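Below sits our specimen:

——
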Amino acid sequence: MPWGEIENCKTSIFDYHRSCMECSFHLCLICCRELRSGQLVGGADPITLEFPFRGRDYLHGGNVDKTVNQTKSNDAAKPIIREWSRAGWHAESNSSIPCPKECNHGFLELRSVLGQHFITDLLCKANGLAQTLKHETPDKFCLCSRPDRSANYGMRKAASRADSSDNYLYCPKAVQLQDKDLGHFQWHWEKGEPVIVSHVIDCTSGLSWEPLVMWRALRQMTNTKREQHLDVKAIDCLDFCEVCLTLFTE
């Protein structure tokens, strides 16, 4: 999990970085390399994006609240004043990097978040877990990969490469799956092979979120106890705006 944030490039600190022990100024290794070569990038002044506030209900598809002061400044959006400057900041002749905040500590030291033996301990734990929970290794060869048995094992031809054993893909039907098919699926999935499961819709309840299906269902709504709203409002997610739709009836 990332720990902290780099002041210059705003990236997350994962493991190795340079840090000031006095003021906790952090610098990633890429920024250190760029600073030593005199080509440090990043660290630009913060950019504040201002937009008119039209009320909390408008953010969720409601109407514009005209009583809200749309020009009121947001204190949280104000840029943070940086306490250090890149002007004249450079590495020393011995490649050491001074702290730009000019604190009493002086230089940035190389530090590690995860610790010196983290990778070694992680490998030992992973090997121990693999030995404890050792799963059954499937057969090295699957009968369905043979072209002459593709029809019986639910295979679909996906390529016509010469001298290749992976021209067919495992394609089971969702309505005919059995317990043994799970192991068959795991065999292909462990090899990194794609699996096509067909007839999935036949196992559903018949509901559909397709726009045309929902539109047709709304037009066929004949509940007289409820008012039929033919003019509805929707959010255009691509244009970030509110639009009006008319569900006319025949």
